[in-house]
Design a protein that fits this description.
Layout lengths: L1 H10 L9 H19 L11
């Protein structure tokens, strides 16, 4: 626990992080992949193609 507090003291707790255009682009990309995954049936293991 002491190391966690030391990291927070030195680097902050993340609440002051600045959002960027990259964040919005990354979230949009993750949403697109999520929709693609759902369209394929939400299955991790797909049947092998012959």
């Amino acid at each position: 626990m002491k190391i966690n507090q030391k990291i927070r003291d030195e680097h902050g707790d993340g609440s002051t992080a600045v959002s960027s255009d990259f964040d919005a682009e990354a979230l949009a990309g993750m949403q697109a992949k999520s929709e693609e995954f759902a369209a394929q049936g939400n299955r991790v293991y797909l049947p092998l193609a012959d």
